[in-house]
TrEMBL record:
GO terms for cellular component: membrane. This is Carbohydrate porin. GO terms for biological process: carbohydrate transport. Belongs to the OprB family. InterPro entries: Carb-sel_porin_OprB, OprB_sf. GO terms for molecular function: porin activity. It comes from the Bacteria.
Length: 53
């Protein structure tokens, strides 16, 4: 699942926050450091900026 939005803050500046939620990122595989334990779901936050001169 991904949610993103692009906003032009100034004529020369664009900001794009991003949120991603990954359900079962390992595809059912175990954690390599502890095979009996599964890898949980993950949330990722990001921010992309674009500056034009």
């Amino acid at each position: 699942f991904e949610l993103t939005y692009q906003a032009q803050i100034m004529p020369w500046l664009v900001v794009q926050p991003d949120f991603q939620y990954v359900h079962d990122p390992s595809g059912g595989m175990g954690d390599p450091s502890c095979p009996t334990r599964g890898i949980g779901n993950e949330a990722v936050f990001g921010l992309h900026t674009n500056v034009n001169f």
